[in-house]
From TrEMBL:
The name this protein goes by in its record: Death on curing protein, Doc toxin
Keywords from the named record: Toxin-antitoxin system
Domain of life: Bacteria
């Protein structure tokens, strides 16, 4: 098995707040489901410490090319992040069921 370089993963305050909003919403209906979802999302975010380039770039008209990588978690969550040197900066954790036109304008 090949050993890959490890990247530091930094989650922005904005992304932490976005994740908290999603988890609190789920917890209103089912606390155990919210706990499980948080663990699942957190594990996916930490997986970016290995080969974060494996996910494609986020391409939208109003977003500069090759600025963000995108990672989908299950079918509902979109994570946008940047890679600089050996650090992954997670900027957004979006619920794909919502309208995020504000992001691309």
């Amino acid at each position: 098995m090949t050993e890959y370089e490890k990247y530091k993963v930094v989650v922005s305050d904005r992304a932490v707040k976005m994740l908290g909003t999603h988890i609190r919403f789920i917890a209103q209906v089912h606390k155990e489901a919210a706990t499980a979802k948080k663990k699942q999302i957190t594990a996916a975010l930490h997986s970016l410490s290995h080969m974060p380039q494996r996910f494609p770039y986020f391409e939208e008209t109003y977003i500069p090319s090759n600025k963000y990588h995108k990672m989908f978690i299950e079918k509902w969550y979109l994570v946008l992040y940047q890679i600089q040197d050996k650090t992954v900066y997670i900027e957004y954790i979006l619920d794909c069921r919502k309208d995020y036109n504000w992001l691309i304008h």
